[in-house]
């Protein structure tokens, strides 16, 4: 009696192993994508709150009311592009990038949007709610995070959803 495996048995074992590895890899990527999305969304949220805080305190870094080329502080803006977001000090005649952040490679913005928080708790420069959306672009992981900024300057994180 032979105690060796037949060719068919080997093919079946290799096929099952390959299928299980593929399923594990997809789930690993999905979980990794969710973690990256959560991390990047929290960092973006911190930038939104930092802009609001700096504007509320009328904290000026570059603005100078005595310099007509720059002018006095208007507020702080958060600018969201497809792969980046910026914290910008907005002066009367000029803008200064304070911080530039990049999303993880698998994370991108749903829409290019910006919001300016006016100094001294004056709200934002828009009369409507400004929405920001961030998504994971990994295969089988269409998760999104959204933030709304009301005209009064209130920042709300909406529930995560499938986009």
TrEMBL record:
InterPro entries: N_methyl_site (IPR012902), Pilin-like (IPR045584). SUPFAM superfamilies: Pili subunits. The keyword Phosphoprotein does not apply. Keywords: Membrane, Transmembrane, Transmembrane helix. The chain crosses the membrane at residues 6-28. This is General secretion pathway GspH domain-containing protein. It comes from Candidatus Roizmanbacteria bacterium RIFCSPLOWO2_01_FULL_41_22.
